[in-house]
Prior knowledge:
By secondary structure, the chain is an alpha+beta fold. The chain folds into 3 domains: 3-81, Arc Repressor Mutant, subunit A, CATH 1.10.10; 126-263, Endonuclease Chain A (Endonuclease, Chain A, 2-Layer Sandwich), CATH 3.30.870.10; 283-338, Winged helix-like DNA-binding domain superfamily/Winged helix DNA-binding domain (Arc Repressor Mutant, subunit A, Orthogonal Bundle). The protein is 50% helix and 15% strand. The chain contains 12 helices and 11 strands. Strand 8 and strand 9 form a beta hairpin. The relative contact order is 0.07. Mean pLDDT is 80; it is low at 58-63 and 268-277.
Amino acid sequence: MLQALGLGPSEEAIYTALLARPTATAQDLALQTGLGEAESDRILLDLVARGLVALATEAATGTPDPADRRPGLRPTRYRLTPPSVALTPLLVEQRNALHLAETAFSKLTEQYRHTAAQTASGVVEVVVGVEQVAHRFRQLQSGAQKELLTFLVGAPIAVPREDTDTSESSALDRGVDFRVVAAKDYLDSHEIVQAVREAVSAGMELRLVDSLPLKMVVSDRERAMVPLDMTDSGGEPSAIVVHRSGLLTALVHLFEKEWAQARPMFTTAGAAEEPALDGLPTEEELEVLALLLVGISDRRAASQLGLSIRTVERRVRHLMDLAGVESRLQLGWHAARAGWI
């Protein structure tokens, strides 16, 4: 209880034992607390020096000598100084020390927050507004020298489609390694499918997955842009630009993980031009196959490719004939084994 005021356990034991009696000798207190008499003497002398205990023997003068045990000399007796007098200065001292500690704590906390805020502002940049987001997006794509990694989900990142096409074409013309993972709902219109097919023909690599957790573009693994979905609540489009950091590394790892699990789309590997040669599927047939393998229905595939359902079904039937199988499940297995996908 009294340790907060600077008293140790043994000192507190002597002090509280003396509190229960008017006066006591060191021997009395040693018996009551279980401490040695010499230790009790030492503690009592220290408490006397600190003003917490006073001498009760009228004949005693100066500082008592616990080693003095001459015959006829009365044992030194001690009494407490009133706690309200003795402990108040200690309490005030501790309060002042706590106040200083709290002040130092507040200053250190504020300094840390300021430093952390400066560090965070160098890692994450917030961009708000249609024009600002579009401008920053174009900067990332046009500034890429080696590699672009992109997640496509739903509508484009607050950027007009023609601006996106121009940026993609420019990057491909510079020889940038351009890899894209698209959620299947991105290819919802024939126009988008046509634009994507043209980009693939120009050198972009495209893979499809059922869904993605976010939209994203990563430029040269130096910076990434991730839109913030605020338009549903009536706010302006916004995005964050992430610079080199552990967060950027995590985004790149996320892309590579999705890329490894995605299915190639619009690939010409293993395909022949129309008409089919040597039992190989055509590029158009592989486009249909890629859509079906990610769970897109015949009707939706027809809509995305600008075909009739009968044309899609005919191409699937021809693929099954080439593979020598009777079901679409067998077709998928054969396509993977034959390197069609």
